[in-house]
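Input:
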Amino acid sequence: MTSSRLSAARPAEIRWHPTVVRYAPVVVIVLALIAIWYMAAILMNMNIVRGAFERNDTSYTTAELIAGTLSAERPLLPAPHQIIETFGDDVFGWPVTSPRSLVYHSWVTLSATFLGFLLGAGFGVILAVMIVHARTLQKSLLPWIICSQMVPILAVAPIVIVVLGAIGLRGLLPKAIISAYLCFFPVTIGVVKGLSSPDPMQRDLMRTWSATQAQVFWKLRWPSAVPYLFTSLKVSITISLIGAIVAELPTGAQAGLGARLLAGSYYGQTVQIWAALVAASVLAVGLIGLVSLVERWVGQLMGARK
Amino acid sequence: MLAPNETNSADGPAVTPTALVVRAQGVGLTYQTADGEVEALSNVNLDIAEGDFVSFIGPSGCGKTTLLRLIADLEKPTAGSILINGVTAEQARLHRQYGYIFQAPALYPWRTIERNVTLPLEIMGFDAAARRERVERYLKLVNLSGFERKYPWQLSGGMQQRASIARALSFEPALLLMDEPFGALDEIVRDHLNEQLLRLWNQTKKTVVFVTHSIPEAVFLSTKIVVMSPRPGRIIDIISCDFPRDRTLEVRETPEFLKIAQRVRSGLRSGHSYDE
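Output:
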């Protein structure tokens, strides 16, 4: 009874376009976050702005106060539009070779990231191959590998810089090494898992053909490990970016996103810090996208289902 | 009680002096487990002659797969000896004297059907021309011509298993070891593949050792049925079947077929009495 009356009272059902259905939740969440951000910016910057007005002995209305919180030069929390404005200005407002350009700083960090990633991933794979082929190595190396990841990188980074600096290595390479130090771990763990993933039947088949260890590796273990490798690489490349940024912090680097973050915090340029953070996230998304693209391409070569 | 460990039953055909492909003497395998010793196989004596089609049949746990793995040198016996063509099982494996077919096709998903079939050839160092020729010949033999460029996931289970048979045939071993190759397939596909296998065996004159738990399958395919029993795994009967080499599925309706099937069944039942 009740239900039939309810359904009779219900207006004609609205049919949303699939695109709307798909993106509406995302848009709603983003809008909500932006709204919360603006509220937080108003509340957090209130005291600074009020203090400024009072120091100058000027009277102010609530509207002026709120406007002030959203356009302060050194806010505690910059408003999203300020960050976007500064980000756009830093990226497009300067020639890419200028130390004021965010593109320049991003490139400095990116080059260390790439080199670190290559070193780290390469080292990670080699370590994994050794671990899979020698049981003793698994027992003796694994604890050290795990320990290496428990040491806080911020503490190790200056030591690495000093030690490498003493033997004449400066600039890109020390940063890359710190980045590699952080990013080899997921690769090692993933590739060890991948290399051990062929089932006993597939390994038995190799035995029935009396394949050599090298043949088993190249024709069975390595191809089996590829999906695991890419999963690890996606984790690893973002860690490698973080590593490169962290490596710039304690070294007094003059360029790079880390240097930019540090300079921002020295001079209270919060908007600049946030703009650098946005640049870092854009890089991270781009890097993961790049790895995913390579993964798709390799997948196609290896006959993955579409 | 049926005579155990008999190499040839009295009512079988006269043995022609062909070479022995497999000779197992007093073979036993005992595993050490946390709960003590487990005897997987005990005192197995078996001769398999060239051109034989021998089936191992028995309930699970009777050691039929283990016996096949011992012949393939995928496991080592703890007692007795196994000779393949007069050399040890290990030497036979190192000289790639047999092709092994598992219950699952175990094709490599990243290789096309063609490159799956050439995999053992690559490993054994065949040149590209020989590989091409073998792929063509053996895919044709298992009725998979035209599927060279497909990936395994694009084929049905039966087709995949046929591809794995082509792979085992590709390097032309004289001995085929098959471990319940059609066990995962439905009965219709299975009947069809059994007929194809028989035709293939008849054409290539290979020696086949075939593990199964299906009585009709064993009787239909074999020249010799080895009935096995569990705890410990052992041979309780060896039955000869002398249907013509080019038999068809219709042979399953004949009284001779039913008689042999009955003997296999009673053998299996007598083995089972140990369970109670």
